[in-house]
Amino acid sequence: MTDGSVSTLWLIGMMGSGKTSVGRMVAARTGRIFIDTDAEIVELSGSTIPDLWARNGEEGFRDTEAEVVSRIDDTGAVVAAGGGVVLRDENVLEMRKGLVIWLKAAPGELARRIGGGGGRPLLVGGEEPEILTKILGQREGGYSAASHHSVDTDGRTIEEVAMEVIAIWNRS
Prior knowledge:
This protein is α/β, with parallel strands linked by helices. The chain contains seven helices and five strands.
């Protein structure tokens, strides 16, 4: 978005939906700063997400995530938010000060993109498509309620999705 009417763009969705890849491209194409909340959590906590999760549990992780979200506020950035960011109402209220776009993908597509799970605590100990279906079922209402718009990413390139996101942002 270049006209400044909505300053911060938040990309939400499941792990593997393309938030980071699309976010980086959108930021590069619009001259905005890119922020990945997971990277910010690692920097703030001084540990990896799996280590933070193991040490503090999901609740402790979500506390750190909420602190990161509250710090971003009105930065004018493109933000890739963690998949569970919608689990806390205070995060949703903060994000909705900007534009929130839900990047949607089917569980099978998510599993294909994620590969072996790569350090994702919620995927430990199960078959990815089944776990992803369960997690998506738990979060879908939150994504829908938090987002102003949604973009289907299944079978699409990062560039195609990024261009649609930019078009939505420019209309907002």
